[in-house]
Amino acid sequence: PGPPTVIEEPLIIGFVGKNEQTGHPSQKPEAVFKKLILMSTLPNETVFDPMAGSGTTAAAALKNGRKAIVCDKSNEYIKIIENRLGKKRITLDL
After folding, report:
1. Nearest to residue 56, comparing CAs of 89, 32, 25?
2. Rounded to an integer, what distance in angstroms lies between the CA atom of residue 25 and that of residue 80?
3. Rounded to whole angstroms, what are the CA distances from 84 to 1, 25, 28?
4. How many CB atoms lie within 10 A of CB 81?
5. Could you tell me the mean pLDDT of each successive run of 10 residues in the chain, 94 residues long?
6. Which among 21, 31, 54, 68 is least surrounded, fewest beta carbons within 10 Å?
């Protein structure tokens, strides 16, 4: 038994301020992920997003004292994430 929903925020970026908009076609607001991250992790823990898109999960994690590992198949979206977070990707030789 918990709340009927944890998502009380609009799911489309057009409903939030322009400061979050990155140009990704289906970007979600950080407020959507903030509650989920706070409910499921402790400070300094790591959040993993294998299909990071615009990097919203990572942005919300970092702003709330968590670490983040993100990836995406699209080079275009990786560039959006790099620009948004001010971080550069690393390449793993597997």
Report:
1. 32
2. 12
3. 37, 15, 14
4. 27
5. 58 62 79 90 97 94 96 93 92 82
6. 21
